[in-house]
Amino acid sequence: MPTYRDEVVVLRTHKLGEADRIVTMLSRRHGKLRAVAKGVRRTSSRFGARLEPFMVADVQLYQGRSLDIVQQAESLGSYGAEIVAHYDRYTSAHAMVEAADRLNEAEATPQQYLLLVGGLRALSRGEHASRSVLDSYLLRAMALSGWAPGLGECARCGRSGPHDTFVAQQGGIICRDCAPTGAARVDAATVSLLQSLMAGEWDLVDAASAGSTAAASGLIAAYAQWHLERGIRSLSHVSAPQEGSR
């Protein structure tokens, strides 16, 4: 059986037997992978700490009939310790890796891998508010999967904006003529923040008011939950932005 190497982000792990784990990973070149890490739960394991969630590693795998086997693992990014030490980073990272795990195999591209690595790195460094890093990641990950929300023209009829109604089921910002009764109205500052989160304009994101940040987070969560097949359970544990937090 052949062996192969790839760069991976560890998404989750499950115990197998007394000393092994099944590791689910998003890889740079081979999409999502599930592999057995033998003996990884023993204190003498050579690479146990390198195969924990949020870690980035260069792995060598042996191609098995049902599950591949991890033979080697070298750390490329040790983000876990800095993430788990802060509740807001930890919950945001969990939501990010859960969203990545929801990707269909065809959507698990090198771009998705690089986006997730960048998001985890930003969380570990505390470069921006954790919820904003998560929100930007979700918007970009969905865009890479073909679900980019409309944030300018009406997502339903294409009429030029600006518009002030957001409906997740209809693809994002829509005009009032297309909006169903009771649809959520969105102010211009929140629409601008959504656009900045999508574009990675962090100077504008960091300067946004707490009210706009909270409103944008709610819309992004609703949009992600609608489009991802089973939703993101970890989002329920992520703290909402609070007034006065900036």
From TrEMBL:
Coiled coil: none annotated. It comes from the Bacteria. Keywords: DNA damage, DNA recombination, DNA repair. Belongs to the RecO family. This is DNA repair protein RecO. Pfam families: RecO_C (PF02565), RecO_N (PF11967). InterPro entries: ARFGAP/RecO (IPR037278), DNA_rep/recomb_RecO_N (IPR022572), NA-bd_OB-fold (IPR012340), RecO (IPR003717), RecO_C (IPR042242). Involved in DNA repair and RecF pathway recombination. It comes from Microbacterium psychrotolerans. Residues 1-79 form the DNA replication/recombination mediator RecO N-terminal domain. NCBIfam families: reco.
